[in-house]
Amino acid sequence: MTLHQTVRVYPLLKRWALAEETKGTYLEFIDDFEIDAGSKAEPHIHNTHEWYYVIEGTGVVQIEKEARRVAPGDLVYIPPNARHTIYPTGKGKTESSVLLLVIKPLVASSIRPWN
Question: CA 74 to CA 55: how far, in whole Å?
């Protein structure tokens, strides 16, 4: 477990574990995290695509100036370099899984037919 101020992070996959297998496009990390009621993740940015999947609790995800309520089952996409935060709105914690993925541009010469 890693503690980032008020957010507990539980890595589900070793960071950078699939960098070699994905040949330049890589999965940076998959984590499960919890934020207690009254706390929040500090606003931050990544240069990667990021998704939050809400597992437990209710909260708000803010991306740049737009804030939306989230609940279990919601999947939120955060584009690269977008300032974002998440915080609980209920009496309990909010638990989410996060996936950070780096995607390189597709090169036409790398496209191959499925057959």
Answer: 8
Assess contact for 53 and 71: CB atoms under 8 A: no
Distances (CA, A) of 104 to 24, 74, 101: 7, 26, 10
Write down all domains in the chain, each with its CATH number in brackets: 2-103 (2.60.120.10)
What is the rounded radius of gyration, in angstroms, for the C-alpha atoms of the chain? Answer: 16
Has residue 53 got a pLDDT over 50? yes
Strand 26-35 relative to strand 7-13, pairing: antiparallel
Cα separation, 30 vs 16, whole angstroms: 10
Other C-beta atoms closer than 10 Å to the C-beta of 55 total 15
Q: Is the pTM of this model over 0.85?
A: no
